[in-house]
Amino acid sequence: MAKYLPPLPAELQARLETPCIVIDKAQTERNIARMQSAVTNAGCALRPHIKTHKIGRFGQMQIQAGATGITCAKVSEAEVMAAAGIDDIFIAYPLVGAFRLHRAVKLLKKVKRLILGVDSIAGAQALNAEASDMGVRFEVRLEIDTGAKRTGVAYEDALETARYISTCKQLDLTGIYTFKSLVYQGKSTVSAESSGLEEAELMASAARSLRDDGIPIADISAGSTPTGLQVAKTGLVTEVRPGTYIFNDYMLYKEGAAELEDIAGFFYVTVVSVPGKEYAVIDGGTKTFPMDIFLNASPYYYPSYAMVDGRDDLVLTRLNEEHGMLTSLTGDIGLKTGQILRLIPIHICTAINLQNQIYLFAEGNLETLKVEARGMLA
């Protein structure tokens, strides 16, 4: 049977309002310390992404452990983290749209360091114009696509774009960044080592190209949780931005980036109906469990939208908004109405974004924490 952290004592489970997520504080602290130590020992800076926890308290824990700052995807997330007292923030997402730029100007005045992402000449033009109108200067990094085919200027166009940004009087181009994840030579891979090495080499080569052209960038930022440590160990980048490592999940376990005992976050649900021995219904559906994975698909073949702790025969493959239907591979569900189950998230980041609050388990007690940056989409 898989080895995870022990479940909550029965008396604490009885206090939960399910469906919910419980985070183990001690394991979270171990995860933070382990990543920070490994990245620091590699001579690299750690700027964790808050997309996983979305809670200022956890961001502060990462800063206190040695992180140089944090990474956000949206300006609204950055506003939440700034309100929590974090004052070194990188928004690793193209700031396109006047409303975002206006909010970024206000945020700039509240923190010690704000770095913005840009991945196009058009985006740089708009950002420069807004900064000029407001009488401010923005520190920016150029995003380069290294294989994920998401945001990021095409690799071969990076130099031309960087040259243009360098002419923008209100923009200070200090670095480049990328998100690549598990991609190698343009295709998905299960090898974090080969993907991470390629990521670091591509970014180092891009940095050399820009510097040789007289563009004095200082920062080379890369690395998600699956590749972050591999990237850091190459010595070719200055910063990595993993996020999920703080809690870990079943996806990272399958990707080889975490052990099962490293997982710090779990679902707790209640069995609300057992119509027959064929299936049981739990009180969590699509409003609880992320749907951003493909079941029984290469390369990891996830059998269920979450893994039922202690019952390898149970699978969660059918969901409505408020209902989750569990079936057993044996044909006999063996559950009772009112029973509380613990499930292991496949992808913890999207799971937490579905919750208004989480429970934090620490030293035998439970407290609730608001998911402050939940739904911060702008």
3D architecture notes:
With 378 residues, this protein is an alpha/beta fold. It has two domains: 10-21 and 258-370, Lyase, Ornithine Decarboxylase, Chain A, domain 1 (Beta Barrel); 42-247, Alanine racemase (TIM Barrel). Helices cover 30% and strands 25% of the residues. The protein has helices at 10-13, 25-41, 56-65, 75-83, 98-108, 121-134, 158-167, 192-212, 228-233, 250-254, 348-352; strands spanning 20-24, 45-46, 70-72, 88-94, 113-118, 138-143, 171-177, 183-184, 187-188, 219-222, 239-240, 265-276, 279-282, 306-308, 314-319, 324-328, 340-345, 357-362, 365-370. The strands form three sheets. Strands 1, 12, 13, 14, 15, 16, 17, 18 and 19 form a nine-stranded mixed β-sheet that branches. Strands 2-11-10-7-6-5-4-3 form an eight-stranded parallel β-sheet. A hairpin with a 2-residue loop joins strand 8 (183-184) and strand 9 (187-188). The longest helix has 21 residues, at 192-212. The chain is elongated. The two termini are 43 Å apart.
Short descriptors:
nine-stranded mixed β-sheet, 2 domains, 30% helix
First-to-last CA distance: 43 Å
Write the H/E string, N to C: HEHEHEHEHEHEHEEEHEHEHEEEEEEHEE
Give me the CATH superfamily of the largest domain: Alanine racemase
Q: Specify the CATH architecture of the largest domain.
A: Alpha-Beta Barrel
Number-wise, the strands total 19
Q: Report low-confidence residues grouped into runs of 5 or more.
A: none
The CATH class of the largest domain: Alpha Beta
Supply the number of structural domains: 2
Radius of gyration: 22 Å
